[in-house]
Amino acid sequence: MTTTAPVSDHHPSDHHPSDRHLAIDALDQAIVTLAARINASTYELLVLIREFDERAGWLKWGLESCSQWLHWRCDLSRSAAREKVRIAHALKSLPEIAMAFSEGRLSYSKVRALTRVVTPQNEDELLRFALSTTAARVEERCHQMRNTQPGALEIANQVYARREVRAFRNMERGVMTLTVELPMAEGALICQALDKAVEAQGEKGPEFEAESWGAQQADGLLSMARSYLSGGAEGASSTADAYQVVVHVDGAALQGEEGRSDLAVESVKRLCCDGSVVPMVDGARGEPLSVGRKQRTVPAAMKRALWSRDRGCSFPGCTHHRLVHEGGYEIRKDTSGGWYFRRPDGRAIPRCGYQTDDMVDDGIDDVADAILRGASAEAPEDLPGYFESLGVREAPAEYLLAS
């Protein structure tokens, strides 16, 4: 005979409040235990995904990859599916991390970050760190380690290439929304400028006490725009620091060795050239042990002398030296002891830039005009963009490069 246990008519929320308070420790333990079981189950899932991919099981359904199969069969987003496949294969050669994950001691978030930078040589060290701290700190350290790897410069250049400002006009509400996408260092410059603009507005009366910080920054942005349009922009020859940003980077990473960095190493080197440097020594937990004196890679007196002699950057049409650090351009000496700029393709850039007269036959003005207008078949369709991609910042009327 089969007996059926009676079903309670009480909902869990109907318990007396004192019962819930007494059971909070048990509830805490139950959540932690279940989270560990989820971690272990996730590891088992990844092992199955790896075997499925190795056996090319997704071909049975006529699909192109295992991530595509996961997207279809398991209702995962495409990016999440790709991450599952990547981590599944990475764990095969990481026995210590795989064991901790299978036992539920590591979360999926930590494993996802670790598998991007871990090697057989640093697996034990990173595992000990991951087991002793939070997932946020693990992701931060792994991000810093990725910035010292060879592919970090390419990623930094991709981020720089995607920089843009988008303006959305909502005529019904009468508002405009600005969205700015910039690399982290340049974004910090904008934030510092906004803070300075807010401070420059001075103290406001009690009637403005209800204004949010965001509203004050919006006012600061407007004051910056008005100042620039009225000719109040700071002169380009100023040697004062434009902003101060704290960037953590290992000395070993700056020397080309393994280490950590908040930004791509070449970007850090560029920032050190542009501004002042305050060297700091941090402990193992990030606490500052010593702070050095503020110093400039290029002294202010030398910078003023260079501006007086060259009236700006010696690179034709360039107002900064990002191309030298992140763009693959080089500064070299010629046989006479003079300096010249060399493009990534090995060609030197003429000191006077690329002149139209050097590229077009004498007396064929209509051809030259057509090329400069972008109407000729020999000229690139996006002539300004073509110049921009080669690091030439002047108008097409002054420079023309052969395709």
Mean pLDDT: 76
Q: Could you tell me the number of beta strands? A: 9
Going by CATH, the architecture of the largest domain would be Orthogonal Bundle
Low-confidence stretches: 374-379, 392-403
How do the helices and strands follow one another from N- to C-terminus? Answer: HHHHHHHHHEEHHHHEEEEHHEEEHHH
Strand order of the largest sheet: 7-8-9
**Approximately how much beta-strand content do the residues carry?**
5-15%
In this structure, how is the largest beta sheet organized? 3 strands, antiparallel
Rounded to an integer in angstroms, the radius of gyration calculated over CA atoms is 29 Å
Shape, principal axes of CA atoms: globular
Count of runs of 4 or more consecutive helical residues: 18
Structural class call reads mainly alpha
CATH class of the largest domain reads Mainly Alpha
Q: What is the count of distinct domains?
A: 3
According to CATH, the fold-level topology of the largest domain is Arc Repressor Mutant, subunit A
Distance between the termini: 90 Å
Give structural attributes.
Arc Repressor Mutant, subunit A, 3 domains, two-stranded antiparallel ribbon, 46% helix
Write structural notes for this entry.
By secondary structure, this protein is mainly alpha-helical. It has 3 domains: 24-146, Orthogonal Bundle (Arc Repressor Mutant, subunit A); 184-202 and 212-225 and 238-310, no CATH class; 313-389, no CATH class. It contains 18 helices and 9 strands. It has helices at 17-22, 24-54, 66-73, 78-90, 95-102, 108-114, 123-131, 135-146, 152-161, 184-200, 213-229, 251-254, 265-274, 300-310, 322-325, 356-359, 365-372, 383-389, and strands spanning 164-170, 175-181, 276-277, 280-282, 288-291, 295-296, 330-333, 339-342, 348-349. A 3-stranded antiparallel β-sheet has the order 7-8-9. A two-stranded antiparallel ribbon has the order 1-2. Strand 8 (339-342) and strand 9 (348-349) form a beta hairpin. The longest helix is centred in the first third of the chain and has 31 residues, at 24-54.
